[in-house]
Structure formats: C-alpha cells, structure tokens
Design goal:
CATH architecture: 2-Layer Sandwich
Strand order of the largest sheet: 1-2-3-8-6-7
Oligomer: single chain
Number of helices: 2
Number of domains: 1
C-alpha cells in the first residue's frame, strides 16, 4: 500500500508528482529545490543558503511522514556547478554526522528555476 505525503511546510510540487510517497516502510522524497514554501520562490543566491532551504524542505516532509534524518538511507544531490560541492557538503554534514546515508552527487547542466542544488532522499523505517 502506498501513501502520498504532502505538507504545506515544504514547496508544493511544480509538476505532476508528489512531494513524497511512502510504500512498505520506505519513504521516497522527490528532489527538493531551495524554494521557500511561504513565498513560493527561491530567495537565496548562494549554494550554502540554498542547501539550508533544501534541508528545511526535506525535514518538513520527513516530519510530516513520521520519519527523521536518522531514517535516511540514500541521498542524491544534483548541483548546477560541481564547484559548489564544498558549500553544499558543509550544510549536508550538519544533518548527517553519524551513520550517514549512502550518497551520490552529480553536476547537471541546469536545475529547475535556476536553482544551484536539488536533493532527493530515501528513508526507511
């Protein structure tokens, strides 16, 4: 059985997808952009502040679904510029200090809305 997760504390989907889907004790969070959910737009202009917003959005979805960062088993990071890896990683390590999830990080040609970072997340209970 699957359950669609939706919270107003994270940005609404900007296409035909769900913020997250839970199935069989696994939570699949769609790639989160650094959109401020109150304003509905990206405010931050550097990768560090954008990464903070991305993690705030991930946290809101995890919380809504009854999960925490300790339940995260896999992250996929998309960067508009691989040179921003260090700035993103400084924020990332605030959330994952022990028993870190598996992770992939890629530079991509472009991200929606001109974002510098997008992170998708899988958590398991």
């Amino acid at each position: 059985m699957k359950r669609i997760i939706n919270t107003t504390n994270a940005p609404a989907a900007i296409g035909p997808y769900s913020q997250a889907v839970e199935a069989n004790g696994m939570l699949f969070i769609s790639g989160q952009l650094p959109i401020n959910p109150v304003l509905g737009k990206i405010e931050a202009t550097d990768v560090t502040l954008q990464s903070e917003q991305v993690f705030a959005n991930i946290n809101a979805i995890l919380t809504e679904a009854g999960y925490t960062f300790m339940d995260v088993v896999k992250s996929t990071v998309f960067l508009a510029d691989i040179a921003d890896f260090g700035g993103m990683n400084e924020v990332y390590k605030k959330y994952y200090q022990t028993e870190c999830p598996a992770r992939s990080a890629f530079a991509v040609k472009a991200l929606p809305l001109g974002a510098l970072v997008e992170i998708e997340t899988i958590a398991v209970k």
